Amino acid sequence: MINYNISKNEIAKILDLNICDNGEEYIGVSTIDAPKDNTVLFIRTIKDEHLIIFKKLNNCIVITQEINSFNFDTITVDNTRLAMAKLLNYISSKSNLNNTRISNMAYVHPKAQIGNNVEIGSFSYIDENVIIGDNVKIKQGVKVLKYTTIGNNSIIRENTVVGGQGFGVEKDENKNNLKIAHLGGVIIGNNVEIGALNTIVSGTINPTVIEDYVKVDDHVHIAHNCKIGQNSIITAGVIFSGSVTIGSNVWVGPNSTIKNSLSIAKDNLIGIGTVITKDIIDENKTYAGVPGYEFINFMENKKAMDYLVKNIDKLKKILEGN
């Protein structure tokens, strides 16, 4: 199958036909030997066996030399082969589909916009109103849901979900849990890499944002309305609660957790397993521990704890008055 988002109105213009546009869009061109849903097919003469095939297809249009007397969508032309040549040449001339490779086992919604030289792996799902820039690689099993934008030269690795619903909950008048819909989408910048098995949640009203050159390792959760600043590095197992803001050039160590609605200033380093419970307003610092402290204070606290552990018997005697 040749992949290219095209409308019936666009087809009519290419073939210089005056037909009524039904508003349908198609994701490419397929053949009667290997027909696909949501595609354009070219058949010079429609036979009985073709009618059986058409009944099993959804949202297809047939370009044919037959008179339009069928119960499926057709465009009648004088020369089917010439119409095919015009349409294929038009698709070839459009730079936004040159070299794009979409697996036959992937699904791309007709209303998704796919850039040039894009790779979409098998079992991936690209939803409506998704915009994917040039030179993007979507690996196997990725789900990119509606209102997501992915910038140029970015990579989304295996089995990651981008734009899913977040976990916003509010109590109603009867104290029952009421789920809050998330409609803001996700914006991923240019030259971003998102690792495998990640979840990046849609913003509630405004989008969740991951800026240019951010690199995210595997098994990371980025909740709704987070903003990850340019050139930051997020390592494996990190959890960002909702509405976290990370400045540029921040390094977040494995299995760290950032409490909701907090901000971390630029150029900071968050150590392995750290739990951040307060805003970090100073730049170019190192934080570690549970809860997270600036590393100097963390080391002072550690020395104090080590002293207490080492001298616990002496301290007991002092407290007992011996």
Describe the structure concisely.
The protein is α/β, with parallel strands linked by helices and 322 residues long. It has helices spanning 8-14, 48-55, 80-93, 295-310, 312-320, and strands spanning 2-7, 25-29, 39-43, 61-64, 74-76, 101-102, 107-108, 113-114, 119-120, 125-126, 131-132, 137-138, 143-144, 148-150, 155-156, 161-164, 169-171, 177-179, 186-188, 193-194, 199-201, 208-210, 215-216, 221-222, 227-228, 233-234, 239-240, 245-246, 251-252, 257-258, 263-264, 269-270, 275-276, 286-288, 293-294.
Please describe what this structure looks like.
The protein starts with a strand and ends with a helix. The longest helix has 16 residues, at 295-310. By secondary structure, it is of the alpha/beta class. The protein has an eleven-stranded mixed β-sheet with strand order 6-9-12-15-20-23-26-29-32-34-35. Strands 7-10-13-16-21-24-27-30-33 form a nine-stranded parallel β-sheet, with no helix packed on it. Strands 8-11-14-19-22-25-28-31 form an eight-stranded parallel β-sheet, with no helix packed on it. It has five helices and 35 strands. The model has no long low-confidence stretch (mean pLDDT 87).
Q: What are its keywords?
A:
elongated; 17% helix; UDP N-Acetylglucosamine Acyltransferase, domain 1; nine-stranded parallel beta sheet; Udp-n-acetylmuramoylalanyl-d-glutamate--2,6- Diaminopimelate Ligase, Chain: A, domain 1; 5 helices; 29% strand; single chain; 322 residues; alpha/beta
Which SSEs are present, and which pair or pack?
Layout: E1 2-7, H1 8-14, E2 25-29, E3 39-43, H2 48-55, E4 61-64, E5 74-76, H3 80-93, E6 101-102, E7 107-108, E8 113-114, E9 119-120, E10 125-126, E11 131-132, E12 137-138, E13 143-144, E14 148-150, E15 155-156, E16 161-164, E17 169-171, E18 177-179, E19 186-188, E20 193-194, E21 199-201, E22 208-210, E23 215-216, E24 221-222, E25 227-228, E26 233-234, E27 239-240, E28 245-246, E29 251-252, E30 257-258, E31 263-264, E32 269-270, E33 275-276, E34 286-288, E35 293-294, H4 295-310, H5 312-320
Parallel strand pairs: 2-3, 3-4, 4-5, 6-9, 7-10, 8-11, 9-12, 10-13, 11-14, 12-15, 13-16, 14-19, 15-20, 16-21, 19-22, 20-23, 21-24, 22-25, 23-26, 24-27, 25-28, 26-29, 27-30, 28-31, 29-32, 30-33, 32-34
Antiparallel strand pairs: 1-2, 17-18, 34-35
